[in-house]
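SAMPLE LOG
Freezer: B-3
Tube label: C17
Construct: single chain, 323 aa
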Amino acid sequence: MSVINQLPFERPIYDLEEQLKKIEQEPDPTPNTKDAIRNMRLEITRMKREIFANLDAWDTCKVARHPERPQTLDYLELVFDEFVELHGDRAMGDDRAILTGFAKLDGQKVMFVGQQKGRTLKERTECFYGCAHPEGYRKALSKMKMAEKFGIPIICLIDTPGAYPGIKAEEHGQAYNIAVNLREMSLLKTPIICVVIGEGGSGGALGIGIGDRIAVLQYAYYSVITAEGCAGILWKDVKFAKEAANALKFTSQNLLEMGVIDEVIPEPLGGAHRDHRQMATALKVSLAANLKELKELPSDQLVDLRYEKFRKIGMFNETGETE
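STRUCTURE (predicted):
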């Protein structure tokens, strides 16, 4: 991994791995060298476990945004057996920030919906860094309704800092289209599984985030707003992003404790960016288990349980009295 992609708290690990690599390349290692190699491997494992067990919310946010973290297209290749992409919203165009299409998971046909950020500058420009326009949310919903028509489960992978913030997007009904998706997804009579694989920011994430099962990868985040956005509003300066991140309680463990999500999917030691295949395997196991469970529920019961699930989130005071 290039130095530019190493997070500050990861550098001691990479420095030790570099030393280990040099020692392992020595010809005819002595018994002392072999002992040193073994001890360094143990130390690297210990450092990974200790560092990643003590990440704060802002550090978690950095891991969620890691340039080498697996994205939607990576999971399409590693988790699903095949994928046939479906384009366009049948109104304006084809938003590349959201990918939709038919896929297979262990032989089970599913409708796949996922947000793609892109890696190269060209890909990111084409995908708007994962920030979808109204046509992207219309595309997603039209494909979900197609899945409902044919009784096909839906899998949504969420990875966005938020919906596209441009003027044209607002003029074309950004907020309205996200609101429509929230309403319509809550009523779809087919299983829906949503997984936050990186960033789960604001309405951009919610636009494809209403499901029967909501999971978040261990070092992903799911929030009403990004840390920088919150800092800009409350502190009037993005330099307070760290404080905002801690206040937002948006890490996977926070969300699980508050009942906002159903599951935390463990990441490989050191984060998903260190082992794409191991992360994909864990994701696949989770998706398959949830699909099997949800397929056994009648469609009417599925919708009722989904309604109750979201109604239970949060705390309400209906008396109008303040404490």
